[in-house]
Amino acid sequence: MDSDLAESIQALKDSFERRGVPVSFGATENTRLGELKELLSLPRRYREFLAAADPVDVETRTPSERVRLIPAERLVDEQVGFALNESRGRLTQKSAAGWMPSWVIIGHSSLLGDPYFLDVAAADAEGDCPVYTAMSGTDNWKPRLCASSFAMFVRILAVGMAVAEGFAEDSFDMDDEEVFREALGPKIREHDPAALKAGHWT
What is the pLDDT of residues 2-35, one digit of tens each? Predict the structure, then answer.
């Protein structure tokens, strides 16, 4: 595992510990990772994340969003209706609503139900790819960048958890959300200016 991903994972784990938010990470076996690579074309960095920190029960908490990451054992099932079909296991062309065969769901908004997904067709030389979200319940899927890479996505989740420290856990209101978003923006800019420009987090 390279240092960028390792540092992002540790930052996320540390943010849960500081906040006292219950969390459970596991480890995915190489055999299963090979199966997932074959079926979903998962890039190297995401597979390394699953190997070192499979998100068995991981949900971030901030005033503006709660992101629940999908554990390895549920990844295939989560694609049903989006990127899988019964004949081969993958879509071969864009769906009528615009869902692309290269999009792999790795999490959901617990507040809105929107998916967070990798675009594995855009894998880079580092074995990573960008992360997007799109609004559910619409006629067409319109992706919006969340992070320039999966490693950066993990880092942004960690930053969000850190910025949210001190906000009320169970009584978020619109004022809290606005103050939080204003504080989060500069922190994201430090790590991923493209994600800040896309505007999903702020």
Answer: 899 999 999 999 999 999 999 999 999 999 999 9
Identify which of 107, 109, 96, 161 has the alpha carbon closest to the alpha carbon of residue 131.
107
pLDDT given at position 105: 95
What pLDDT is recorded for position 181? Answer: 92
64 exposed, middle or buried (CB, 10 Å; 0-12, 13-18, 19+)?
middle
Counting Cβ atoms within 10 Å, is residue 181 exposed (0-12), middle (13-18) or buried (19+)?
middle
Torsion of CA 170, 172, 173, 175, to 10 degrees: 150
Tell me the domains of the chain and their CATH numbers. Answer: 3-198 (3.40.1580.10)
What is the C-alpha to C-alpha distance for residues 35 and 29, in angstroms, rounded to an integer? 10
Q: How far apart are CA 164 and CA 160, in angstroms?
A: 6
pLDDT, residue 26, reads 97
Q: Are 100 and 121 in contact (CB under 8 A)?
A: yes
pTM comes to 0.90
